[in-house]
Design a protein that fits this description.
Blueprint: E1 8-11, H1 19-23, H2 53-67, E2 70-75, H3 82-113, H4 133-138, H5 144-185, H6 187-195, H7 236-249, H8 255-270, E3 282-286, H9 289-301, E4 310-312, H10 316-319, H11 323-326, H12 331-352, H13 367-379, H14 384-394, H15 398-405, E5 411-415, H16 416-420, H17 422-427, E6 436-439, H18 445-452, E7 455-458, H19 459-475, H20 482-503, E8 519-522, E9 529-535, H21 537-543, H22 551-561, H23 563-574, E10 583-584, E11 606-607, H24 612-622, E12 630-638, E13 655-660, H25 664-673, E14 676-681, H26 688-695, E15 708-714, H27 748-764, E16 768-773, H28 776-788, H29 791-798, E17 800-803, H30 811-823, E18 828-833, E19 851-854, H31 865-885, H32 899-918
Parallel strand pairs: 2-14, 2-15, 3-5, 3-6, 4-5, 6-14, 16-18, 16-19, 17-18
Antiparallel strand pairs: 1-15, 7-13, 8-9, 9-12, 10-11, 12-13
Helix pairs in contact: 2-3, 3-5, 5-6, 5-13, 7-8, 7-22, 13-14, 13-15, 19-20, 19-24, 23-24, 27-29, 31-32
The structure holds iron/sulfur cluster.
């Protein structure tokens, strides 16, 4: 690898040239916890080989940003050794930080031992006590002796805490050393550990139910397992008091749900191992598990591989080792089943004092086995697959073992949806307070945040949920309490209103109460008409007459009664298959990453076997967001033959979508509590967007996170003279214009001319050529045409042809064959898609990518309602920002009211292009 840096800049937080700095005030958000001087980055970092200068500069910049508690944007293209530099820079800081903590603890203990309890002189504090502590006491108008006593007490408490933490750390180090010794003695020791596991017991399905405490007389007439389908009594009284407490907690729309989340999270934390010290750590996030696995391999290769405690987190779907549960496939069902088994285990424990054979609990969730697996994770770095295999061998749950390893780990690697989604973070017991967060491949972090908090449901799903609930209510009418019946009826009322909002959408006029203009269009094939209207959250509830229903109570009822799960069990057992409609998937622990492909018409993903009501509830929950932060888009899709009949809509294509517009509102939790947040990526330009949308949403001045910022950027490592960029407006004949806009790109003359150009390119470019199309469909269409016209055969005379597979599992084999072909001296061409599986995170180094061809520019669909709403929102925000910074309280004459939205539209496209050609 040549060590050339085409450009590099490192801006301290106070740089006024950075809009990042100007938006985010250059003041540290939090005072440092230690009176020690700031750490200075070393000139020599531990690194597996002599680092190039750009790698050393990246490590120094990263070290400084973390030490100075910065929000940083780090840009370093693929092939520059970014991952290794991040690992070594961040872990060197962590090593030095821990050493500082130990020094601090040592001096405190020494001070305590050598001290004969002197009264601290006024204004002084014990060594290591936060430097502001004494001043805080002194600000009160109290006598000196009271202040001195309070300062001394604070010092003693601080000292005790540090001592306790160090004792825990010592104990844990000894225990892990033992585990390491045992594990390294022989593989047989692992088998011995596994030998103690309990024999798996057969697990009843949700529909048949576990051995339940069905002791009520009424239940006698119910058939086998049916008792479990009945809702347990729910009383809103307690929730009311919770609600009033939490309402006062927060003005924000979602505040009322925070208390419930906290309660849930603390319940999860109860079963965690408090004996394990919670050490300073780095949370490293990337988009996919395969990227995380690559990262783990890099950690192993680094000088920190042996000494760093690393844990990789995944969902239950990835980590569950119980085959009976894994086979449920849908993540929601796996979660539900696992929760059931855990509840059974708690009940069994209460009744018998321990697990016992015959209990319908998970046999892989015994304390000993999970603790042993946790310790083995901490002494040997494992990736996801190894973790599951080890869990199976040891008869221990890999999901809970990895969760329990978080407290003691130095490095936690997880998909970034798990970290960015508030509830998932809390459910995992992740506390970001004072920790370091590094988000890799962060170029799409804003779109991912928007996607995580956006929800789409189809009319078919709402209808299925309603039909199931009506049948359920009818069958068990006499068995439900009055309170439960009231909530069931409310739920039915809201679902009917949601359906009316779609079927009643006028096709020719402005929808009553719609916040934005109604849009109408024909589909590409002209087969159906689509009409959309946009509403604010409050307007949507008001117009559909459910604004008087307390959604907070309704959601509490649904959660506590587990109605979604019970209804699904009921539907599987008693409902006609037609009502078991597919359901649109939403943000979950899996959190499938998507960029704003919804702007280009992405259809919701469908999953079988998932409760339809679950999705309806997710949509309802999204309405708890702040009114200004999102929109509801109602889309009715009518078959053209029934265009005049308002009720004739295509239920599978007509949707309700909650669109999150303000990613900053959720990102502030992360920035607000972490010590430092670093967004890293190959191409992060334009960086202003991160500042404007993530740090300082102008509509929420109260939410502004006062952090200092840092920016590091290094260019590609190849010399400028080795690179040539060419824009082709015409093909070789000079007669056909290269216009790949929607109108012209299907023109066969354009495709043929493109084929001629490609034949020329493959004739004079050696080794590998990578060619990007705007979509899978367009790629397939062009390749079909080239097959017919024998262009592909001509290309094949020079290069072997490869094509990006749609199935993720086949990507590795295609890449391997492509690389082998080039290394064997035969040229190859790889056709792939912008935003697809090969457009990021893959290093087409040297001969693998001698030429990159970009066919047209991947602009999003201009007519997308969601995209237009996002652009409108950004224009409004820019206006608010301009007004706020204007001294006259008027917009400057040069202010362009549509510039922010247009810039976003352009950036969306250019970022996708940068990502593809920059990798
Ligand atoms: S406890 Fe672990 S192994 Fe058992 S069902 Fe849950 S995730 Fe699967």
């Amino acid at each position: 690898m040549a060590a050339h840096a085409s450009s590099m800049r490192w801006m301290a937080s106070s740089s006024s040239s950075s809009s990042l700095s100007s938006v985010a005030p250059a003041i540290p958000a939090k005072t440092t916890q230690s009176s020690d001087a700031l750490l200075v980055p070393p000139t020599d970092f531990p690194f597996p080989f002599q680092p190039y200068s750009i790698q050393r500069q990246l490590m120094q910049a990263l070290y400084t940003a973390i030490e100075n508690r910065r929000f940083g944007i780090f840009e370093s293209p693929t092939g520059t050794g970014k991952s290794m530099s991040i690992i070594c820079g961040a872990l060197t800081w962590l090593r030095d930080h821990e050493a500082r903590q130990v020094r601090l603890g040592g001096s405190l203990i020494a001070a305590a031992q050598g001290r004969d309890q002197p009264v601290q002189p006024a204004g002084s504090v014990a060594p290591g006590v936060p430097s502001g502590a004494s001043d805080a006491f002194r600000d009160n108008a109290e006598p000196d002796w009271v202040l001195d006593f309070a300062a001394k007490k604070a010092g003693e408490n601080h000292e005790r805490r540090i001592r306790e933490e160090q004792e825990l750390l010592l104990k844990q180090t000894e225990r892990l050393a033992q585990v390491k010794r045992k594990l390294s003695q022989s593989k047989a020791s692992v088998k011995r550990l596994a030998a103690g596991s309990e024999k798996p017991v057969s697990i009843p399905t949700a529909a048949t139910g576990a051995a339940a405490d069905s002791d009520g007389d009424e239940m006698d007439t119910l058939s086998d397992g049916e008792a479990d389908l009945i809702l347990s009594d729910y009383s809103p009284d307690k929730e009311q008091s919770d609600a009033s407490d939490s309402d006062s907690d927060s003005e924000a729309g979602s505040g009322k749900f925070d208390a419930r989340r906290k309660k849930k999270a603390s319940a999860v934390r109860d079963d965690e191992d408090e004996e394990v010290p919670d050490v300073a750590k780095i949370y490293y996030c990337s988009r996919t598990h395969s990227q995380l696995n690559q990262f783990v391999q890099e950690v192993r290769k680094s000088p920190f591989g042996e000494t760093t405690k690393v844990v990789v987190l995944g969902s239950r779907k990835n980590l569950c080792v119980n085959d009976d549960v894994r086979k449920l496939e849908a993540v929601e069902r796996i979660n539900e089943r696992c929760d059931d088994l855990r509840k059974n285990a708690s009940k069994s424990k209460e009744a018998k004092g321990a697990h016992h054979d015959g209990c319908a609990c998970c046999p892989y969730l015994t304390n000993d086995s999970v603790s042993t697996l946790r310790d083995s994770i901490l002494v040997h770095t494992t990736d996801i697959e190894e973790l599951v295999n080890r869990g199976k061998k040891m008869g221990a749950c890999a999901y809970y073992a990895s969760r329990r390893a978080i407290r003691a780990a130095h490095l936690v690697a997880l998909p970034y949806q798990m970290l960015l989604h508030h509830s998932t973070r809390e459910a995992l017991g992740i506390n970001l307070s004072n920790q370091v967060v590094i988000v890799d491949e962060a170029h799409n972090v804003m779109e991912t945040l928007n996607d995580i908090y956006s929800v789409t449901i189809t009319l078919a799903v709402i209808r299925a949920a309603q039909s199931q609930l009506e049948q359920y209510a009818e069958k068990y009418n006499t068995r439900l309490s009055l309170s439960n019946l009231r909530f069931v009826n409310q739920l039915l009322f809201v679902m009917r209103a949601m359906q009316r909002s779609v079927t009643g959408l006028p096709s020719t006029e402005r929808a009553p109460g719609a916040s934005a203009h109604l849009s109408s269009k024909s589909s590409a094939s002209g087969a159906a008409d689509e009409h959309s209207a946009v509403f604010t959250i409050n307007d949507f509830a008001r117009i559909n007459n459910f604004d008087n229903i307390n959604l907070f109570h309704l959601q509490n009822f649904c959660e506590q009664s587990e109605i979604a799960k019970k209804l699904h069990g009921f539907a599987e057992r008693f409902c006609a298959p037609a009502t078991l409609a597919s359901s649109a998937s939403m943000a979950s622990e899996e959190g499938e990453t998507t960029v704003l492909t919804t702007s280009t018409g992405r259809e919701p993903v469908f999953q079988r076997n998932v409760s339809a009501l679950q999705y309806v509830l997710r949509f309802l929950m999204s309405l708890a967001n702040n009114d200004s932060d999102g929109r509801v888009i109602v889309t009715a899709c009518r078959p053209p033959t029934s265009a005049e009949d308002a009720s004739a809509v295509d239920a599978r294509k007509s949707t309700l979508r909650f669109v999150m517009l303000n990613p900053g509102v959720h990102f502030r939790d992360v920035v607000g509590s972490a010590r430092a947040v670093i967004l890293a990526g190959g191409t992060m330009q334009p960086t202003d967007a991160f500042a404007n949308q993530l740090l300082a949403p102008p509509s929420h001045p109260d939410l502004l996170v006062p952090v200092a910022s840092a920016m590091f950027s290094c260019g590609h490592i190849i010399p400028v003279e080795n690179l040539q960029a060419v824009a082709l407006a015409f093909g070789p004949t000079g007669e056909v214009k290269f216009d790949f806009s929607f109108r012209f790109r299907h023109d066969t003359r354009v495709m043929d001319e493109l084929g001629r150009a490609l034949c020329d390119i493959v004739a004079w470019v050696p080794e590998g050529v990578v060619c990007f199309f705007q979509s899978y469909d367009y790629m397939a269409k062009v390749l079909d045409r080239w097959r017919q016209t024998e262009v592909l055969q001509q290309v094949q005379l020079k290069k072997r042809v490869f094509q990006e597979p749609r199935v993720a599992g086949n990507v590795d084999s295609v890449l391997r064959e492509y690389s082998e072909c080039i290394r064997a001296g035969n040229g190859a061409i790889l056709f792939c898609v912008v935003g697809g599986k090969l457009s990021e995170g893959i290093n087409f180094s040297d001969g693998l990518g001698r030429c990159v061809v970009m066919v047209g520019l991947p602009f999003a669909n201009m007519y997308s309602t969601e995209l237009n709403e996002k652009m409108r929102y950004l224009n409004e925000q820019a206006k608010v920002r301009a007004l706020a910074s204007s001294k006259t309280n008027k917009l400057p004459p040069s202010f362009d009211e549509t510039a922010a939205g247009e810039e976003f539209y352009l950036n969306l496209c250019m970022r996708a292009v940068n990502q593809s050609i920059g990798e």
